Amino acid sequence: MVQLCIFDLDGTLANTLRSIAGFANEALRRCGYAPILPPEEYRFLVGNGADRLMRRMLARAAGAYGEEDVRRLRAVYDALYGAEPLKDVTQYPGLLPVLLSLRRAGVRLAVCSNKPDRDTKAVAASLFPEGLFDECFGQREGVPCKPAPDAPLQIAARLGVSPADCLYIGDSGVDMDTGRAAGMRTVGVLWGFRDREELLEHGACELIAAPAELLPLAGVEAAP
Q1: What span, in angstroms and rounded, lies between the C-alpha atoms of 160 and 167?
Q2: What integer best gives the mean pLDDT of the chain?
Q3: What are the pLDDT digits (tens) for 79-93?
Q4: Is position 180 within any domain?
Q5: What domain count does the chain have?
Q6: Same-domain pairing of 47 and 138
Q7: How confident is residue 96, by pLDDT bands cut at 50, 70 and 90?
């Protein structure tokens, strides 16, 4: 049986697309950029951390930009997000019973996100019961963003689990690259921000269309 399941947050555990798009577009507006991007476009802009998101937004909204533009936009975005990290955030249906079944079977659970650590913890704590996750890692100083494997490997080491006994679950190519780099079996979810083709292109070991499909992959029987 799998000993540890590590989950991405945005697009995997939490539907944050409207939330991210809302804060991002408001940051663009406050910084004087007229083009406001459709929320669906953010499906393809997120995934590599906030700094990369700012650069992608500026490339779409302004074309040319400098590092000072990135810093200014990021400061506004962070302030907006930090003030209301739970705005327009929802849990994907069917996830909680699956997570509880995994815990009852003795599988440990963790969150690993490129979202800033403070916001990652706030969103996870708002959507799921206290103590459900053994570790909750967001982007933090000194730890490379995904797809670098550092964060999931730190999680596994802290919990005393070999990477070979872990599942890494996410909705994007970045997640699949992260899990593979960490030596973990990767599971791509089809309810998130990206599509089947991207997940397969980046080496997903398994694809699931509904949360309950994760249980047999972890060696856990569904509750009757």
Answers
A1: 14
A2: 93
A3: 998 899 889 999 999
A4: yes
A5: 2
A6: no
A7: very high
Given 8, 10, 171, 175, which residue is catalytic? Answer: 8
Over residues 185-204, the pLDDT tens digits come to 999 999 999 999 999 999 99
**Tokens (6 digits) for 25:** 């577009």
Question: The domain that contains 76 carries what CATH number?
Answer: 1.10.150.240
Mean pLDDT within 6-12 = 96
Provide the domain limits for residue 102.
4-15+90-217
Residue 116 and residue 63 share a domain: no
Is 177 tagged catalytic?
A: no
- Cβ atoms 196, 207 nearer than 8 A: yes
Residues in the chain: 224
